[in-house]
Predict the structure.
Amino acid sequence: MRLNFAFVGAGACLLAFATPSVAEEHTPASIADSNARIAAVQAHIDAYRSGDLDRFVATFAPDAEVYANGMSAVGHAQIKALYALNFKPGAPDLRIYDNGVDGDVVWMSAGYVYANGEEMCCSLSEYKVRGGKISFLSSNTQ
């Protein structure tokens, strides 16, 4: 199933739009599963935008795996260390360009905007969700 959606500002709801495929059957259960994955990633984005590192780390499963630009982290302590710089004063804001759902993967293309307006583009992130938490994240800056 492929769903396109828009991540919006912190605390806002997520808009989801189903794009039917001839080869795929969209059952209420499959749509509910996709919506639950989208909601978990939306909570993750909202936590990032809040600037609260602990809230952000809490969006991950305790045994989550993160792979980002040749670095890896497993579990909350390592994930917190990996992302600590993203939560320091002067860290850039997140700008989402595109996103969607493909099977059990939620994906997002984003850039980062500094206070002076300078933009660092682009990263592609793929998320897997288990039990309402991010269980796997692969993110690479392009």
In short: Residues 107 and 126 are 4 Å apart (CA to CA). The longest helix spans residues 28-50.
